Amino acid sequence: MRATEKIWMNGELIDWGEAKVHVSVHALHYGSGVFEGIRCYETPAGPAIFRLRDHLQRLHDSARIVHMEIPYAVDELAEATRGLVRRNGLSSCYIRPLAFHGYGGLGVAPTGTQVDTVILSFPWGAYLGDDSQENGISAAISSVRRIGPNVIPHAAKATGVYLNSMLATMEARRAGYEEAILLTEEGAIADGPGENVFVVKGGVVLTPPLAASILPGITRDSVLTLAQSLGYSVEEKSLIRTDLYLADEVFMTGTAVEVTPVHAVDDVELGVGPVTRELQKAYLAAVGGRDERWESWLDRVV
Ligand code: PMP
User: Fold this and answer.
1) Tens digits of per-residue pLDDT, 126-144?
2) Fold type of domain 6-122
C-alpha cells in the first residue's frame, strides 16, 4: 500500500501517519463498520470518480441495515472525497470510505461509542495482478458458503462480513486458484469475495439476482446497463455450479477487478470470450471518460 499525504477523518484532513485509533475501538473487536471501495480514473477532462454518489448511498444503506448513523450526509462525503483526492494530487486512485463504531465501550451493543468516519485514497493497480484482465483468472468454487440474508445481511458492505470473503480467498489461493466463487447455503452461485459473477450463454448475459446473497455491485449494475446498450439480452437468474462449467464465457465484475475474464472454473477451461472483451472495453471507456453517453456516472475532482 502506498501512503499518500492526507486522510479525511471526522471532517478534517490529517496526515496519513496520524490517522490512528485506540485498540479498544468497538469495530476492531466486533467488525462493526461499513465501508466502500471506489475508483477515480484519469479522463481527458481530468480525474473523475466513478459513480461516487451511488457508492456513498450504498455506504449509507449499509449503515442503515446495521442501525448505524453516519454523521455525514452523502453530499458532505462526496465533497470530502473530491477534496481529499485533489489534496493528495492523485489522477487515478482507489478510495476507501469507512464508518465504524469507535471508542467508548466494549459491550456488544454499541452504546456509548461514537461513529468515526474516514476516507482514504491511494494508488492501486489491477487487484488480481497485471495480466488478469488480459488473460483471465482461474476460479474455484469455495467450500466456504456465502453469508446469508438472515446471518449478516449481505446487502450491507459491512467490515465483519469480510471474514467470509477472506476465508474463501485464502482457501482458493492455498489450492492454487486466483479467486473463489461462493455458493449460498442452498447451492446457488452467489458472488466472489469482492466481485459479482456473470455468465454468457448463447449470447445472453446472465448474473445471479440480489436474492442470491450477493452484494448489489455497482460495477454489476453498470455492466448490465452497458450490455443492454450493446444489444445483449440480460437476465438476473439463479445459477448453479454447472451453469459455470457449461458457460460460453464467465467473468467477474467489481470496482477493484473492473471486468475480469474467468478462463477456468474448477479446472474446467473456458478461455476468454468475445462478449467479455466487448463489455470490458465498454466499461473501461465509460470509466475513462471516453464515451459521453455515460458522462453522468463521472464525478469530476477538479
Ligand atoms: N461482491 C462482493 C462481496 C464485494 O465485496 C464487491 C466489492 N465491493 C462486489 C461484489 C462488487 O461490488 P462493486 O462493483 O460495487 O465494487
Assistant:
1) 778 779 999 999 999 999 9
2) D-amino Acid Aminotransferase; Chain A, domain 1 (3.30.470)
